[in-house]
Specification:
A hairpin with an 8-residue loop joins strand 6 and strand 7. About 45% of the residues lie in helices and about 10% in strands. With about 675 residues, it is of the alpha/beta class. The chain folds into 3 domains: about 190 residues, NAD(P)-binding Rossmann-like Domain (Rossmann fold); about 170 residues, Orthogonal Bundle (N-(1-d-carboxylethyl)-l-norvaline Dehydrogenase, domain 2); about 290 residues, 2-enoyl-CoA Hydratase, Chain A, domain 1 (Alpha-Beta Complex), CATH 3.90.226.10. It binds coenzyme A.
């Protein structure tokens, strides 16, 4: 059975213990480095036909680890573990005993087939075999394999040690359990696996290769630098800049020829790719002046190819709409996913762009349904059914599942859709991946509210729509806290009827370090719901102290602690069933709180804090505690957030986070 959230799968194999990567060029060692970072005990074998390539790859491991150490991203022990147990060989015999062989050699079908024939003679018949091709379908690569059920394509994106996306190809001959295992394994090790169909170029390279190809076909309208400058409204780096970086011209020629041969002449690569080695263009962040007419023509063409490819991917079921948008943002550095872009442009504009595109590029796919139909999907959550309980997974891996109003509204919409259904016992909320339940409110959304008390109060109320709904629900909602739950993420957890946490999970209210206050419940709920834990919450609110799951369990905040490798979500599902039909405690009575002892304005981490903001926070906690109803107490929180948003400290704290520097509250007070 396949779940949308890969971590709901029960793995049919253990995590890999010995892996071979064939091809020590660029991406092979990068994939290996990711694997060793996630699984330090792994034995990794790099195979190549040339010793210098192996030597360079091993050297690269050392350099990456050194950099990670210097940047404080790894400890000495971690850096040592990453480079330990990595060997190189020219001899395929070294892959004996591997439970996974991953091929990352040149994009050449005959070569790949030869490699896999050799591999299959050495490894066990059930060892996983995957190819890291960006274009060649699994059906072609593995046509001659004896044991096909364990093989498929796993397509990584550069730089593979950091880029989280991996396309896992759903080939008809692969055992579905192998696909589920690969998705589970990638997600467990910090990647974002996207399951896609077995067609040439899969999902994301259909977008990327055709985007580049149409950019090249536009060279009669503008230069490469002009096209990249125009593309900057959609992507962080223009197509020609990326082609230079990836030495991509021959790749587009190859992959678009593949698409043209299989799907039609309209995919034929631009001839200019064969005669140009490097494009003269501008780097990301730089633009040149482009004549308005050229801008319009190039913009329409680039949008046209994006819309065309996106509807085709969805109409043919190559990938899901949410995966398409997420993949384009994460793997291809698009500023918005193509479907989000189409939604924001509006139907009339998309239709105009597509009409023009159809005239310029006959044969290219066009929508087969109403445009509105392509927009009907959940963008930021995954929804699964486990034993009659809807499991809602917050999925914004680029921001550690941080909340914004669209995400909270989407959770609310899913709950509303199912809560009247007698077959649904309740809901579980959890976070995507192994690291974060939710890193709080999306700080990127804050700057536009700073200085505007009314807008900030309204934002708090908007984000609270979900929380207020949870308060009033009859069916239980249980939080399955799988990692960090910070700020607004913890405030969401607090409103769930039950809280189950993984042992490694932790809670924090970091707002004070950003020069703001947690306005949607944290200054209110804990004192009414867990009065005996008041002292711990004083420390969390005023000094951003962390609370480990085990300590939260001792305090009665967490109902159940589950080992990190335990079945967290299924324990939460069981709790939903146990809570069904039971009344929830009312939080209307005023709370007694301990007085705030005077303190130095410093966080638990040592970071200096704003005295003014601490003052606003303490006052709000006191006012909320004595408020005559829960609703009135919550209102105190919203207003305190509005007040704090107008302070110089908030501006400093938020800017510092977004500029990746330490805030200086000394100058703001
Ligand atoms: N809002 C928006 N983006 C967030 C976020 C948030 N609340 N929390 C994390 N992110 C983003 C980071 O900006 C980063 O994006 P980038 O890759 O584009 O730079 C990404 O998520 C990964 O986080 P990163 O900071 O690189 O991971 P880390 O391991 O170094 O640190 C945290 C993790 C959680 C300690 C750190 O991200 C953090 O302090 N986040 C803010 C938490 C917070 O204050 N929440 C309350 C908000 S009111």
């Amino acid at each position: 059975m396949s779940y949308q959230n890969p971590l709901l799968e029960t793995p049919t194999r253990p995590l890999p213990g010995r892996v071979a990567i064939i091809g020590a060029g660029t991406i092979g060692p990068d994939i290996g480095y990711y694997l060793k970072s996630a699984l330090p005990d792994l034995e990794l074998v790099l195979i190549d036909v040339a010793q210098p390539a192996i030597d360079r790859a091993l050297q690269r491991f050392q350099e990456y680890a050194k950099k990670a150490l210097a940047r404080g991203r790894m400890t000495e022990a971690q850096a040592a573990a990453v480079t330990h147990g990595v060997t190189g060989s020219l001899d395929y015999a070294a892959i004996r005993g591997c439970d996974w062989v991953l091929e990352a050699a040149t994009e050449n079908l005959a070569l790949k087939r030869r490699i896999f024939a050799q591999v299959e003679d050495i490894v066990a018949p059930d060892a996983l075999i995957t190819s890291n091709t960006s274009s060649l379908p699994a059906a072609r690569i593995f046509a001659e394999l004896r044991h096909k059920a364990r093989a498929t394509v796993t397509h990584f994106f550069a730089p593979a040690w950091r880029n989280p996306v991996v396309e896992v190809i759903r080939w008809s001959q692969t055992d579905p359990q192998v696909i589920d295992y690969l998705r589970w394994m990638f997600c467990t090790t910090g990647k974002v696996p996207l399951e896609t169909g077995d067609v040439p170029c899969f999902m994301l390279d259909r977008i990327f290769d055709n985007w580049c190809n149409d950019a090249a076909l536009c060279l009669d309208r503008g230069t490469a630098a002009e096209i990249d400058s125009t593309a900057a409204q959609f992507v962080h780096a223009g197509p020609f800049f990326v082609l230079n970086l990836a030495h991509g011209n021959p790749i587009i020629t190859e992959t678009n020829t593949l698409q043209a041969d299989e799907e039609g002449e309209h995919y034929r690569p631009a001839p200019i790719f064969r005669s140009v080695e490097t494009w003269v263009t501008v780097p990301p962040g730089k633009r040149i002046e482009v004549p308005p007419q050229a801008t319009a023509a190039v913009r329409d063409r680039l949008l046209g190819i994006l819309c065309s490819q996106s509807v085709d991917i969805l109409d043919r079921g190559i990938g899901t709409p949410a995966d398409l948008d997420l993949g384009c943002r994460l793997a291809l550095a698009f500023k918005k996913g193509p479907l989000e872009l189409m939604r924001d442009l509006g139907e009339a504009e998309v239709r105009r762009v597509l009409d023009r595109f159809a005239a310029e590029r006959p044969g290219m796919p066009m929508p087969r349904r109403e445009l509105a139909d392509y927009q009907r999907f959940e963008r930021h959550v995954l929804v699964d059914d486990v034993d009659g309980v809807k499991v809602i997974t917050l999925r914004r891996p680029e921001a550690l599942n941080a909340l914004h109003d669209e995400l909270t509204d989407e959770i609310l919409a899913v709950i509303r859709r199912h809560e009247g259904d007698p077959a649904v016992a309740g809901f579980v909320l959890t976070g995507y991946g192994a690291r974060a339940f939710c890193a709080g409110a999306d700080i990127g959304r804050f700057p536009r509210m700073l200085g505007d008390a009314q807008a900030s109060v309204q934002y708090s109320r908007d984000c609270s729509r979900l929380l207020v709904h949870l308060d009033a629900m009859h069916k239980p909602v249980v939080a399955a806290v799988n990692g960090m739950a910070l700020g607004g993420g913890f405030e969401l957890v607090m409103r769930c009827r039950g809280i189950v946490a993984a042992s490694g999970a932790w809670f924090q209210l970091p707002e004070i370090t950003l020069g703001i206050v947690p306005g949607i419940g944290a200054m209110v709920v804990p004192y009414r719901r867990w009065p005996s834990a008041g002292a711990a919450f004083h420390g969390m609110l005023r000094r951003a102290e962390r609370l480990k799951a085990a300590d939260a369990h001792k305090l009665g905040v967490v109902d159940e602690l589950v080992p990190d490798d335990g079945d967290l979500v299924r324990r939460a599902v069981a709790r939903v069933h146990a809570l069904a039909g039971k009344p929830r405690a009312a939080l209307d009575a005023a709370a007694a709180i301990a007085p705030f002892e005077p303190m130095e304005p410093a966080a638990a981490s040592g970071q200096a804090l704003s005295r003014e903001v601490i003052g606003i926070l303490e006052q709000a906690v006191r006012d909320a505690a004595s408020a005559p109803s829960f609703a009135a107490a919550l209102d105190v929180g919203y207003r305190a957030f509005g007040r704090v948003a107008c302070t110089a400290a908030a501006r400093e704290g938020i800017s510092a986070f977004l500029e990746r520097r330490k805030p200086d509250f000394g100058k703001t007070g």
